[in-house]
Amino acid sequence: MKTLAEPGDKVELVRRLRTVRPGVTHRWGRMSVHQMVCHLADAFRMAIGDMVVSHDAHLFNRTILKSVALYVPLPWPRGIMTRPEIDQVKGCGTKPTDFAADLALAEAQLELFTATAAQLGGRAHPVFGPMSEQAWLRWGYLHTDHHLRQFGA
Questions:
Q1: Residue 133: helix, strand or coil by DSSP?
Q2: Sequence-separated (6 or more) residues with CB below 8 Å from residue 111
Q3: Does the structure show a pLDDT above 90 at 105?
Q4: pLDDT band at 138 (very low <50, low <70, confident <90, very high)
Q5: Domain segments of the chain as ranges
């Protein structure tokens, strides 16, 4: 299973992220490619605690949904809703400004997320509840992969 704990998997995601260009049309969903880049940066900020989002970590989400989402070897399905505070379509989260700068920030946030992974163990995901360092690194890969696939990257 791919994870940001594996250097090769991280290199692959960064390479794919760097291929994203303005104006690329989404294959599904409602975000623009620029909004997606900002959403990725916000999600990594949320994970390391630099951005506060509301929680919905009830029993089903903390157990069954988390296990399926993180450990069933299938791509995440289309149409997954995000927390309102980082929902670009609702006008929340970081507003897109300069594409190149926002893309560089998303990559920097991914780097910071992996560099501080040892501090993530036990930290609560807003939907999945408390997660181990390894679970966070798996989530980071899957979340980024999901959105890159959304734009054909």
A1: helix
A2: none
A3: yes
A4: very high
A5: 1-75+118-153
